[in-house]
Amino acid sequence: MQIDRVFVEGLDEEQQRTDLTQRLNHMIGVKGVSIDGHLQCVTLKYETPMNLNTLEKEIYDAGFKVLRTVKGEITNE
Known about the structure:
The protein has helices at residues 14-25, 52-61, and strands at 2-9, 30-36, 41-46, 65-74. Helices cover 29% and strands 40% of the residues.
């Protein structure tokens, strides 16, 4: 399982965080999503065939600017 963090801009409201979490959780391969509103950071847990580029595009398509991505770790969960 891959765990990465995506820092975004414009993720200010609780409803925005809820909507984005639901949108990402419905994608095949996504195992978990958590959003820190203060840091404007989306933490993603996912497995192949999902990849980080696809997740970044989905965040962008939801209306949020992707500022940077921090590649995380690979776990055996």
